[in-house]
Write a structure and sequence with these properties.
The structure holds 2 protein chains of 2 kinds. By secondary structure, chain A is mostly helical. Helices cover 76% and strands 0% of the residues of chain A. In chain A, helix 1 packs across helix 10. The two termini of chain B are 33 Å apart. Classes of the chains: A mainly alpha, B mainly alpha. At the A-B interface, helix 1, helix 3, helix 4, helix 5 and helix 6 of A face helix 1, helix 2, helix 3, helix 4 and helix 5 of B.
Chain lengths: 293, 308
Amino acid sequence: MTTRARQRQRRGQVMTVLTWIAAAVAVIPLVLILAQLLLNGLLQLTPTFFTQMPSPPGVRGGGVANAIIGSIMLVAIAMSVAVPVGIGAGLYLAEHRRGRFALVVRLLADVLSGLPSIVLGIFAWELIVRPSGHFSAWAGGIALGLLVLPLVTIATEEMVRLVPVALTEAALALGFSRWRTALAVVLRTAMPGIVTAVLIAMSRAAGETAPLLFTAFGNPFWSVDPSRPIAALPLQIYSYAQSPYDEWRAQAWAGALVLLILVTIISVAGRAVVGARAKLLSAVTPRVGRVDE
Amino acid sequence: MQSPLGDRLYRTITTVCAAAIPFVLVLLTAVVVRAAWPALALHAGDLAFGRTWDVPHERFGAVPAVVGTLLSSLIALAIATPLALGVAIFTVDIGPRRLHEPVAFLVNLLAAIPSVVYGLWGVFVLVPMLRNTIMPALLPFGAVMPLFRGPAYGPSLLAASLVLAIMILPYIASVSREVLRAVPQTQREAALALGATRWEVVRDAVLPAARSGLIGGVMLGLGRALGETLAVAMVIGNRHAIPDSLFDPAYTMASLLANEFAEASSDAHLSALMAVAALLLLITLLVNLLARWLVQRVATGLPGSRWT
């Protein structure tokens, strides 16, 4: 081998090692964070943590029952706003692939999904909290809804585009009207993928804090009234972490662990549906050709 | 049976849904800018050039927050970009095939961790570690490198940049991965056929074709970093001053909003915060538009792309 060839080979080896190092270094923070969460949170996780209300500083025990309920309500409001609109918009984008308006909407959906969530919170504050005069679950839910709207839109479009065109054509040839084809054939075939995306979007909404600071605002008491301030798990973690009390700080770790477990369950459920989608598509595709056009 | 009414209804509904997205963006911008208007009219000079943030005296200098936002984001980018590119190259071209999916999955998991959990970890693990071990070790270099000057409290520009770097790493890595995978396989094969080593394939055949998409991915990461709120608010130290060293506490626009918005009582204060929000909105809008445009340029015309 010539010196030049050996040099090139050595260079390749060095770069390979560097990418190995990059991969290792990128995974380290994940391991560190998960380890700390388990270490500090696991012992605090008693059954009462899920069933009780927050306790005053210095008092042992206490839980986050109200925050869990609050988070569920906020996410429910967010999803009921974002899912129908997002699916409708996704269907539009998939159908009007190259239309000028579709191009603009597609670009803006991407842009919206990249905006700071705190700005969405300020928008909801100005739109709902200021006119109504008080913080509310509605405002928090809407802020979170704006956060997930573009995610649902983008995912729906992508899933609908995976549906074989031949399937649509077959339905139309059988005399199905356009709207029935879209809903009964296209949307139904794409549904498992959309459900997955919705669940992943949901887990993101459940973990968001910034837009809730001045919309849902948090609430140390039991409340299920959507027109009033409401507790949320991430908000509770935030205020506990900032507090000077050891008990509360310990609870912040436990709350973070619960939050992460919740988020993981939701998105694992989503991935389970992805498996279903693959099966579903492979059931229809052999007869109609390639999946991605 | 054909049902023109149903079809028309379906078309109208989906069009309205699609129109909701531009509508929300326009409304959002209009509402925030309108709410910021009084401050923009009264305190524009102070907001743009002032360094003092003194609420009782209605001094609203936003410069430290703007500088803190840019500095923390850029330092985070400087840390995260090489790592993310390394991960992307590893999971597309270089690493063993068996590890491609698992490594990509693990790195993506970083994006699933909520911001407040990063903040918690930053406050109770990273900051003490910086204060007790890393900062004291770096302080001797302060004599020659002004970046490492004390005092070393812990909550600092450095802490915020590190947390941000971890948070944006998965975004940059996954966009880069997508872009690299979009480079046609034939291009790699051609380079291999000419006798290139695996690294040379990446360097000469893959990276140049993917360049603008990679830059777009980095800018998407920048967009995230600029707007990230809570994790930063918890570790940056929240001091209204331009930091002289990495160890100094600082402030960002987003954390300023997080800390003061709910407590703002005077109209002037509220409007000044709205002006900060409007500025943050405009900066992130621009960064995102540019990033999308760059990614789109690479992705267009390639199989499986949303932009075809």
